[in-house]
């Protein structure tokens, strides 16, 4: 089948998933926040697509429309009853200014460039072929989760200990498509990029950002090639970066009690984080720490937030345990923690490898980022997002010291691309600090004004 | 305009320029040309021309032919090659999934097929199919 035809079919599958998700997102996102509803809608729709695969296996049918529609109806009907009635922000009625138009053009160009990079050829990165794609294709083709993926030593390269969310998603899309097409399926990645940009700009708008600031942040992020490039297409970084943004913003909304949907969004984000990549669980734990610091003094708030964060992640972890038993992280040797001298030496090696791999233009970019941060005003939401990003950066800097294959190997193969996945979170943290600097007179709290909620 | 605004706009502009400079016009042109050339080809041919097979395109031709000729009930394939590599193992495992793949095992597991690529067939196997660059074998 020619590529264009396949691409249209995958686009239709993603559109259906997004449409179902849009209906579910009525219970997640306040009315009026259309950009965010689209983003959360895609997250919800893709989650249902992925979940339809284990559901299909459980009821002994092939992954496809029957399992998806069954799950969709189970999600859409309650969402309709629980839909949020409060309105987030008044629709902007002002005319488009030059800055907004310019940022819109940059953003469209960023999406178009990533489409080109992602869709040039079938997904090909080693991690896609050896890990995510191999498992997804096996699930789809066998119509079950074969135990050998987790038991056979010869398949250790496929990292049996990694979460199964992405392979289930691939198998789900293939099930809806009716065949495995690893070229057209790459369209998922630009779709995730668009959803990330919508989540970022929509959240900033709800937090009081002017239209040019919200669009400017999204435009800049859309051009961030270290994350949105051909090599990362098929791997976990782009989905994780989207999940982390959803997690960070919903956690902040929950702590600030911006709207009744924040708790539900946090549940979904925690679930998606934990199901996407191993560090998703780490992020959930970091979120607990951030929630503790932000809301511990408020009676009951931390306990409820902790439950909302931890329960979905625990559910994912329990599901994985049930499917495949306990599997250790094979890339790391935690016994090094008991040998301080070696640990210090390895950490030195890590920092040296990071320094060697950081070109001057990255240092210039970091300096510009520093200026952007300094130009902003203190913001509790920004502090929380920075705290999450700092936890992740700390972990990414520390973990190579425990790498079985050596710190230099892990830094060279994974450090820079995994750190790049923090970009949407950092963009939100930086931009929310700039809200008062570029204020257009709207309130900055993000709380919704309708008293009916 | 306030100092903060000016600083933010300047830093944002620097970042934008750095991000835009990361795009190589030559690479983008090559991508457009590749996509327009390959879009009408079948999926396997598009993969054959892509980055994932660049390390050994002949191996992919062999593996793809193997996939097409593999009996549905094959419990697994042992690929015997003189050029084993992790990349080759990953590509073959993915291309042949869900059929399990081993590369140069000490012994071909019972009932598994053997696919030889660039080496002589081991004794005691019968030929199932000739493939480009190799042969698919089974125990008698």
Task: Report on this structure.
The complex is a heterodimer of chains A (453) and B (140). Chain A is an all-alpha fold. Helix content of chain A is 68%, strand content 0%. Chain A has helices at residues 3-24, 34-58, 65-81, 98-119, 126-142, 148-151, 165-177, 188-206, 211-222, 237-256, 261-276, 278-295, 301-324, 340-356, 360-375, 380-398, 407-420, 423-434. The termini of chain A are far apart. The model of chain A is unreliable at 449-453 (pLDDT under 50). Chain B has two domains: 3-40; 46-138. Chain B contains five helices and five strands, in the order ααααβαββββ. Chain B has a five-stranded mixed beta sheet with strand order 2-1-3-5-4. In chain B, β4 and β5 form a beta hairpin. The longest helix of chain B has 19 residues, at 3-21. Chain B starts with a helix and ends with a strand. At the A-B interface, α1, α4, α5, α9 and α15 of A face α1, α2, α3 and α5 of B.
Question: Layout of helices and strands, plus pairs?
Answer:
The complex is a heterodimer of chains A (453) and B (140).
Chain A: H1 3-24, H2 34-58, H3 65-81, H4 98-119, H5 126-142, H6 148-151, H7 165-177, H8 188-206, H9 211-222, H10 237-256, H11 261-276, H12 278-295, H13 301-324, H14 340-356, H15 360-375, H16 380-398, H17 407-420, H18 423-434
Helix pairs in contact in A: 1-2, 1-3, 2-3, 2-7, 2-8, 4-8, 4-9, 5-7, 8-9, 8-10, 8-18, 9-18, 10-11, 10-12, 10-16, 10-18, 11-12, 11-13, 12-13, 12-16, 14-17, 15-18, 16-17, 16-18
Chain B: H1 3-21, H2 25-38, H3 43-48, H4 57-69, E1 77-81, H5 86-96, E2 101-103, E3 113-117, E4 126-131, E5 134-138
């Amino acid at each position: 089948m020619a590529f264009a035809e396949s691409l249209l079919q995958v686009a239709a599958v993603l559109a259906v998933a997004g449409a179902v998700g849009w209906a579910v997102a009525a219970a997640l996102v306040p009315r009026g926040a259309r950009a965010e509803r689209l983003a959360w809608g895609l997250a919800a729709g893709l989650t249902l697509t992925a979940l339809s695969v284990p559901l299909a296996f459980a009821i002994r049918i092939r992954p496809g429309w029957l399992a998806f529609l069954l799950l969709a109806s189970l999600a859409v009907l309650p969402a309709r009853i629980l839909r949020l009635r409060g309105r987030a922000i008044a629709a902007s009625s002002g005319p488009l200014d030059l800055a907004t138009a310019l940022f819109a053009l940059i953003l469209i160009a960023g999406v178009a460039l990533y489409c080109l990079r992602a869709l040039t050829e079938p997904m090909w990165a080693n991690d896609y072929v050896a890990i995510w794609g191999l498992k997804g294709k096996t699930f789809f083709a066998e119509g079950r989760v074969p135990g050998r993926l987790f038991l056979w030593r010869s398949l250790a390269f496929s990292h049996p200990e990694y979460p199964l969310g992405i392979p289930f998603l691939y198998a789900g899309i293939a099930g809806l498509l009716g065949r495995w097409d690893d070229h057209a399926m790459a369209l998922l990645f630009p779709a995730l990029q668009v959803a990330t940009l919508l989540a970022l700009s929509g959240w900033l708008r709800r937090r009081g950002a002017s239209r040019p600031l919200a669009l400017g942040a999204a435009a800049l992020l859309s051009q961030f090639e270290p994350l949105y490039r051909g090599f990362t297409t098929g791997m976990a970084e782009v989905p994780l970066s989207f999940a982390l943004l959803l997690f960070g913003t919903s956690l902040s909304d929950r702590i600030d009690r911006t709207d009744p949907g924040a708790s539900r969004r946090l549940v979904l984000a925690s679930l998606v984080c934990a199901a996407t990549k191993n560090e998703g669980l780490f992020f959930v734990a970091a979120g607990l720490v951030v929630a503790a610091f932000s809301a511990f003094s408020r009676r009951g708030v931390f306990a409820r937030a902790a439950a909302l964060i931890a329960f979905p992640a625990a559910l994912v972890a329990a599901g994985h345990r049930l499917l495949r038993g306990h599997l250790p992280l094979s890339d790391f040797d935690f016994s090094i923690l008991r040998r301080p001298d070696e640990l210090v030496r390895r950490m030195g090696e890590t920092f040296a490898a990071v320094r060697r791999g950081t070109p001057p233009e990255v240092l210039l970019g970091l300096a510009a980022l520093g200026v952007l941060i300094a130009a902003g005003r203190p913001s509790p939401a920004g502090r929380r997002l920075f705290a999450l990003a700092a936890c992740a950066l700390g972990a990414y800097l520390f973990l190579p010291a425990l790498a079985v294959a050596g710190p230099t190997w892990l830094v060279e193969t994974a450090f820079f691309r995994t750190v790049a996945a923090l970009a949407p979170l950092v963009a939100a943290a930086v931009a929310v600090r700039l809200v008062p600097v570029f204020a257009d007179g709207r309130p900055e709290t993000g709380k919704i004004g309708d008293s009916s909620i | 305009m306030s100092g903060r605004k000016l600083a933010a706009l300047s830093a944002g502009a620097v970042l934008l320029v750095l991000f835009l400079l990361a795009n190589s016009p030559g690479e983008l042109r090559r991508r457009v040309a590749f996509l327009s050339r390959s879009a009408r080809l079948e999926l396997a041919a598009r993969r054959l021309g892509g980055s994932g097979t660049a390390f050994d395109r002949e191996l992919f031709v062999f593996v793809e032919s193997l996939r097409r000729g593999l009996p549905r009930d094959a419990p697994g394939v042992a690929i015997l090659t003189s050029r084993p590599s992790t990349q080759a193992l990953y590509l073959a495992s993915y291309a042949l999934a869900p059929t399990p793949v081993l590369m140069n095992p000490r012994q071909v597991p019972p009932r598994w097929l053997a696919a030889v690529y660039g080496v002589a067939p081991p004794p005691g196997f019968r030929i199932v199919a000739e493939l480009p660059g190799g042969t698919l074998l089974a125990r008698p």
